[in-house]
Amino acid sequence: MTTQNRYKYASHCLYNIGFHIIWCPKYRRKVLVDGIDERLKELLLEKAKDLEIQIDQMEVMPDHVHLFVKCKPTLAVHHIINQLKGYTSVILRREFPKLKSRLPTLWTRSYYVESVGHISEETIKKYIEDQKKV
User: Which residue, 55, 36, 57, is CA-closest to 45?
Assistant: First the structure.
């Protein structure tokens, strides 16, 4: 990826913010199968467009979801996750009634998130440390 494609621009800001996000259905049940997985992908892309975020990579496993999301620095990651989980839960439970009978809620309240960048943590620490040497 070229530098030009890596960065996004906003008012007074140049950024490249990415998050690896994982979450699971309640009780880690393997319910993301039989068409629910494909519909979930559609809904996630739909909501991402609405939130003005970019899903660069997505994989839906029977018992968890992986996303690599890029967003503006003005969006909090917990807001993004809550919006994606809330939106998909409401629609999937309405369209697939068996989800209501198997689970009290579709998603667990927890999630995993890690920031992902082009420059490693080690490189940033060294860069900051070397600033006084200049």
Answer: 55
**Residue 121 pLDDT grade (very low, low, confident, very high; cuts 50, 70, 90):** confident
| Phi, psi of 39, deg, nearest 5 | -65, -40
Percent of the chain with pLDDT over 70: 96
Structure tokens, 46: 């739909």
Q: For residue range 53-105, list pLDDT tens digits in order.
A: 999 999 999 999 999 999 999 999 999 999 999 999 999 999 999 999 989 99
Q: Which pair of tokens denotes residue 32?
A: 């993301």
127 is catalytic: yes
Q: What is the largest CA-CA distance in the chain?
A: 64
* CATH entry 3.40.430.10 includes domain 12-133: no
Enumerate the domain spans of the chain. Answer: 12-133
How far apart CA 116 and CA 122 sit, in angstroms, is 13
